[in-house]
Amino acid sequence: MAKVGAESVEELPKAIVRRLVKEKLSESDAGDLQIHKEAILAFGESARIFIHYLSATAKDVCKESKRQTINAEDIFEALEEIEFQEFIEPLKASLDDFKRKNAGKKAGAAKAKEADKKRKMAQSEGGKEPSTAKAKEMEADKKRKMVQPEVEEEPSAHSEDQEDDEEADEEGNEKEDEEEADEDEQEEEADEDGDNKEEGDINDKEDEEEADEEDNSESA
């Protein structure tokens, strides 16, 4: 930190000040001219004071225009007021170059972002839907199945055995039913024969009783 009067201010970065001074000196015939560290400090302090002076003038210009934001035009007008008109054209050229570079960076970033977005969308669609060739193959297979008649399935050996068992069970059940029916008929016939025999015995007994009565009548 360096002090000017009673105010405490920040120094400009010495590395930046040194680089700017060396770049300017390299454009001239200074050769291997060396720069003392106190000279670097003086350059930095001079630049700081100039920036403060220019900022105060630009602020007044902005207020006169009834605005709250200082723009580049305010800086140009402030340079003219403090009689540094020769800085205006180089400053405008530097600003135009900066805008072109910045616009190129923004355009490149926008293109890269758009390309990345398209790539992600393509990957997402590829993960959810089948490819075109796969979709065509699936559609052709579907149509082929619709055209071809359905082929009846041949009965398996297990199915045939099961059918034979069922038929045998049915035949066995029918045979049992027939046997039961025959037994029922035989029982009914036996019952009828018994009834007929009993009825015949009763008739014979009645005939005998009638004969006895007739004999008794004749004897009397």
How many strand elements?
2
Which percent range describes the beta-strand content? under 5%
Question: Average pLDDT, to the nearest integer?
Answer: 76
- Shape verdict: rod-shaped
* Count of alpha/pi helices: 6
- Under CATH, the topology of one domain is which? Histone, subunit A
CATH architecture identity of one domain: Orthogonal Bundle
| CATH homologous superfamily heading of one domain | Histone, subunit A
**Whole-angstrom Rg:** 63 Å
Strand order of the largest sheet: 1-2
CATH domain class name of one domain: Mainly Alpha
In terms of per-residue confidence, which ranges show pLDDT below 50 for 5 or more consecutive residues?
A: 1-6
> Would you tell me the structural class of the helices and strands?
mainly alpha
Note the run of SSEs as H and E.
EEHHHHHH
Largest sheet descriptor: 2 strands, antiparallel
The helicity comes to over 70%
Give the SSE map.
Layout: E1 2-4, E2 7-9, H1 14-26, H2 37-64, H3 72-81, H4 88-128, H5 132-147, H6 157-219
Antiparallel strand pairs: 1-2
Helix pairs in contact: 1-2, 2-3
Protein name: Transcription factor CBF/NF-Y/archaeal histone domain-containing protein
Organism: Papaver somniferum (Opium poppy)
Domain Transcription factor CBF/NF-Y/archaeal histone: 11-79
